Amino acid sequence: MPLDFKNSPVDRLRLASGLDGLSYLILIGIAMPLKYLAGEPLAVRIVGMAHGVLFLALCACLLEVLLRKKLTFGWCVIVFLCALFPFAPFILDRKLKAKGR
Questions:
Q1: Cα(43)–Cα(34) distance, integer angstroms
Q2: What is the dihedral of CA 55, 11, 29, 87, to 10 degrees?
Q3: 6-27 per-position pLDDT tens digit
Q4: Cα–Cα distance for residue pair 43/31, rounded to 1 Å
Q5: In a domain, 38, yes or no
Q6: 2 belongs to a structural domain
Q7: C-beta separation of 15 from 90 below 8 A
Q8: Rounded to an integer, what is the distance from CA 29 to the centroid of its chain?
Q9: pTM (global) more than 0.90
Q10: In the chain, how many domains are there?
Q11: Other CB atoms within 10 Å distance of the CB of residue 3
């Protein structure tokens, strides 16, 4: 994800989506194996809380772009659904970048 963000609602959504996607990958790729293979449940507690906060930030950004009519409701649903699958936010970023312009 290139760092060419401007101060627009769609760019804030892109940033929130990228951070949420990264935290999700860390949660399932690092923290969960640490919990179940190394017996370290604290990793999931810390990373899980950070991921939850970032997911709420993503939802707030989605609400902002929807209310400002920068994206349609359909696009907001797609962004929300992509947040539920690993790597999907990074694939979606290119399309959101084009939408922001």
A1: 7
A2: 110
A3: 788 999 999 999 999 999 999 9
A4: 5
A5: yes
A6: no
A7: no
A8: 16
A9: no
A10: 1
A11: 5
Residues, the chain, total? 101
Residues 42, 97: Cα–Cα separation, whole Å = 36
Vertex 10 angle, CA 7 and 11, to 5°: 45
Q: Rounded to an integer, what distance in angstroms lies between the CA atom of residue 6 and that of residue 52?
A: 25
Enclosing domain of residue 93: 9-100
Question: Of 100, 99, 98, 97, whose CA–CA distance to 18 is shortest?
Answer: 97
Domain assignment of residue 80, yes or no: yes
- Tokens 């760019």, located at residue: 11
Given the structure tokens 């970048």, which residue do they identify? Answer: 97
1 in any annotated domain: no
> pLDDT of 60-73, one tens digit each?
999 999 999 988 99
